[in-house]
Amino acid sequence: MNLRMKLAMAFLLLIIVPMCTLGIGMFLVTSHTIEKKYNQQSEYALQAISYNIENVFQQINNVTDNGIATSVFQMALNAKDPSKQDLGIGNQLSLNASQRNFRSLLYNYPFISYAFLYDLRPRSSQDNQIVSIFTKENFQALPFQQFKVHPIFKEIQELNGVPKWLAPLEYPELTGVEPVFTQIRLVKELSYFQNIGVLVVQIKKGEMDRIFRHLQISDPAQDTSFLLINEEGLIVYDPSGRYSGEKMENLGVRSGIYGPGFSSTRAVFDGSESIISQYHLKNYNWSLVSVTSWEALSAETNVFAGWSIIIILLCLLAAMVFNVFFMNRITGNIAVLVRFMRRVDDGDFNARVEGSGFDEMQLLAQGFNELLDRIGGLFRRVRAEQEQKAKAELRVLQAQIKPHFLFNTLESINGLAMRGEGRKVSEMVTRLGNMLRISIQDQEEISLSEELRHLQSYLEIQHYRFSDLFRYEIDIPSHLYTSSILKLTLQPLVENSIQHGFEGIEYQGVLRISAFVERNNLVLRVEDNGIGIPQEMLARFEYMAEDPPEYIMAEGTKQLSSMAERRGLGLRSVADRIRIQYGAGYGVFICSSPGHGTIIQCIIPQYEQGEDE
User: 110, 220, 363, 394: which has the fewest Cβ within 10 Å?
Assistant: First the structure.
């Protein structure tokens, strides 16, 4: 797969796919949030409506409780009983007053539509056992003989005076076909708590309509319907009258979703997807249900989804345009760079990319060319350093133990032996052995203490040979003895001072060797009070810390070849080894003037053996 296809796939996988995933995720989250918020609102609305419905029923319960407590219903039943119509004037007046008070109480609740009593007392005659309190046109109460065998009658007796409410359409033979709610309860005689009658009270439809009209959700776009459903799933009341008498199963809603408390689900209702929320009335066998069209609720979400699809399509179009007009140029320039990199990989370091324009691709081409220039320079520098290293290693071998120094030392030992000075012979042999041991070992770096032992052996041998020529002092703190140093660093510097600095002097020379730490570097200093170095000779050491130009290298090499055994060979060897080992920032620095001696400073990084440089 080429770069163009990879970039296109990356754009698709890293931008388009995440955008689609994000859009789908936001759509699902938004839908869930809308449904959750609506469920909360529905729960509050249904609780408020159920509270008002239960309040209406409780008011009627209070009215009928009052009538029972004041014996109004007992007196009404007695008024119809021929055996008990022989009332005194006081009792008759009391009865009329109680009935008037009860009627006045009923008139205070204009939503009461109809009220009558069933007389449960045994009778000798076949008189009508229905006592009317309010009359109602076009309504015929169920005869008492049929009422006695009705299942409601047994349930009323089991409730023992607690009101029983019937919804519209549940028992039309008892309540009629009008959408009214009916209360049925036992009436007891207060003296003996005997069942003397059954009270039937109906309330008007308008009171329930008023509750739904004022408490329904006000947003018309939600298209919300409120229904009252019994335990069998029958819609017993619909304020709009559209679904009254229907079964929820016939409208597409499965049974069994009605239970205590609040619940909500998304289901198909009457052919359209809707959110169905139900709240079970606490003291009654009904559930209050709200049905809201999901299409109306998710209208804003659908708009959002539409815009998301449009944005994704625009992104796809932009990706295609980007691929056609911009990707070709980018991938083409990259392909050119790849071809030149392959040429470089084959060893052609003269390859250069010719870029055009002022964008990042031109900067990349320039960077590629500059990198090749730097690599070429590094190769040339490494080649030169390898050549210098080879020369420095040769000079190190030459500077380790010069043949004439070894010959002179052995001659001195022979003279001591002939004079019978065995102790001095032993000391000279021991010191010469120390020098040979350090010179021939393979380890490139040694501790400063070992280097000092080598140096002291050399100085003692030379001091024996030239005891009147010079004296020496070593001032190096003991805490620096563990510092790491290239072997044979100090001895060539000291040798240079003894052989050249003290040559032809008429006074005793003084040689001082010291060391200190400065800026995390170890500075080794060799000072003498010798004849110094002339300026023309000092100029030959100007480039000991850096690479000299080719013409100076050629001239210096020619001059040093003729004077290799006399001047500068040890100094240049030490300088080259330090620069190759530690870098261009380190080396040997010389300060000298004729007649004022010479100071040689050797600067290397300060670290102990075993540490990273």
Answer: 220
Identity of the amino acid at 318? A
The H-or-E segment that residue 509 falls in is: strand 509-518
Q: Which residue has the tokens 């607690």?
A: 162
Highest-confidence segment of 67-76, 121-130, 246-255, 257-266: 246-255
DSSP state of 143: P
572 touches 541 (CB < 8 A)? yes
Rounded distance between C-alpha atoms, residue 277 and residue 32, angstroms: 15
Within 8 A by CB and 6+ apart from 592, the residues are 532, 533, 538, 598, 599
Could you report the per-residue pLDDT of 221-230, keeping only the tens digit for each?
556 888 888 8
Report the pLDDT value the prediction gives residue 563, as an integer from 0 to 100: 38
**Whole-number Å distance between alpha carbons of 425 and 419:** 10
Rounded to whole angstroms, the Cα distance separating 87 from 75 reads: 11
Nearest to 77 by CA among 35, 131, 126: 131
Instruction: Identify which of 181, 162, 163 has the alpha carbon closest to the alpha carbon of residue 171.
Output: 181
Neighbours of 226 (CB within 10 A): 20
Measured CA distances, 176 to 30, 60, 143, 203, 220 (Å): 48, 19, 13, 12, 33
CA distances from 523 to 143, 587, 596, 603 (A): 129, 10, 22, 5
Note whether 313 and 321 are within 8 A (CB): no
Total residues belonging to the chain: 613
Query: Cα(first)–Cα(last) distance of the chain, in Å?
Result: 46
Gap between the Cα atoms of 10 and 576, Å rounded:
54
Query: Per-residue pLDDT tens for 42-62?
Result: 888 888 888 888 888 888 888
State the average pLDDT for the chain: 77
Closest CA to 144 of 72, 77, 68: 77
What is the pLDDT averaged over residues 312-320? 77
Burial classification of residue 497, based on how many CB atoms lie within 10 Å of its CB (0-12 exposed, 13-18 middle, 19 or more buried): buried
CA distance 434 to 209: 121
Smallest CA-to-CA distance from 39 within 391, 290, 324, 269 is with: 290
For the stretch 23-43, pLDDT in tens is 788 778 877 777 788 788 888
Residue pair 534/573 in contact (Cβ under 8 Å)? The answer is no
What's residue 443's pLDDT?
76
Which pLDDT belongs to residue 555? 38
